[in-house]
Amino acid sequence: MSGCSDHPFVDALLQKYYGRTAVVAVIGLGYVGLPLVGALLHAGFPVLGLDIDEAKVESLKRGESYISHIPGEMFAESIGSGRFRPTVDFAALREADAILICVPTPLTHHREPDLSFVERTARSILPNLRSGQLVILESTSYPGTTRDLIKPILEQSKLRSGKDFFIAFSPEREDPGNAEFSTSRIPKVVGGDGEDALNLADALYSSFVCKTVRVSGLEAAEAVKITENIFRAVNIALVNELKIVFSEMGIDVWEVIEAAKTKPFGFMAFYPGPGLGGHCIPIDPFYLTWKSREYGLPTRFIELAGEINTMMPRYVVSRLVDELNARKGRGLNGSKILVVGLAYKKNINDTRESPSFKLIELLERQGATCDVHDPYVPVIPPTREYGALAGRPSVALTPEVVASYDAVLISTDHDDVDYEMLARNSKVVIDTRNALARAGIVGPNVVKA
Question: Both 44 and 146 in a single domain?
Fold first, then answer.
């Protein structure tokens, strides 16, 4: 247990956190917030779940989940007992002993940080803030966000951080669909606005996760998550670039990576793809590049990686055009293309920042007609950038349907796809994930890209 404090609120809160009697509010019931709710409930905490989306709240009240890899049964019993209360009423925050913010931090059209969700959430907390509460931001952002944005807004209440309430940052580390590492099995980095805030955040998370990792302050904790995602973005850019170079040399990059990873030290396998997807890797590096301008420092390595990853959909489309020209004598104009996979990674229904959207846009801009098949996404959901695609249904895969397309483009390698049937009936398959080779399927109509 963290050391005792002379502060009148701290010891009482520590006892509540360690005793799992504290009411914990989670704001934002999406791919980060909902697993967090599940972990808290499993540990025995009473939980408030807040979201501005009434449909999500009503779904949870019925004991139903809207995220494919999170079962509704995780919440049904707690809903019935009243231990979990989903609501759109932010006045309920007055009951909370801890408030965890898990809202999106996207980019604007100019690829600059969009903290509007975080700011609106802080302003929603403001009229409901009371003495003796801990507020933790989990949403990924650049170092300084919690101190420079969240803290001033909350202190408009005339309450003071470190005296009346406490602020911390603990970056989310969710990996949707990864059954091996659920929320409670992933170490939690914690940084606080002062020692009391750090001790409180440590106490709360240590009550339901396997391990906490304390860092010196808010900015260090924010920098941890940015670093993790930049590391992945840069290494994915490297293998994407190698894919292009090796392809020109007639070398299979996936074969090279599989052989290289047999080295027991000094190598970590990353894999190429059609572009970056998910909320973290395509976005978070740009938060740091934006912030670095304040200090007059370039981030050339990060920006170069971003350029390479961003251009991958165009590379894939160019390979597809080459294959159509070689086989049909004409390019995309008038061609029918089936895109297999809309989710950004396999076996989930998460379409955030999926490269499939960009691929469809590029293909249709050149005159192609695109359909989509995704066993986890029955209908293309609305998005900020690709609203015109919303509502298109996922087509069923049958031999006749597959044969009717001029090309099939595998963008996501879901396990629930009959790849043998796909290859057998396709005129040409452009495989961006090495899915067919991993299934032992080769042929003159199979092209890796």
Answer: yes
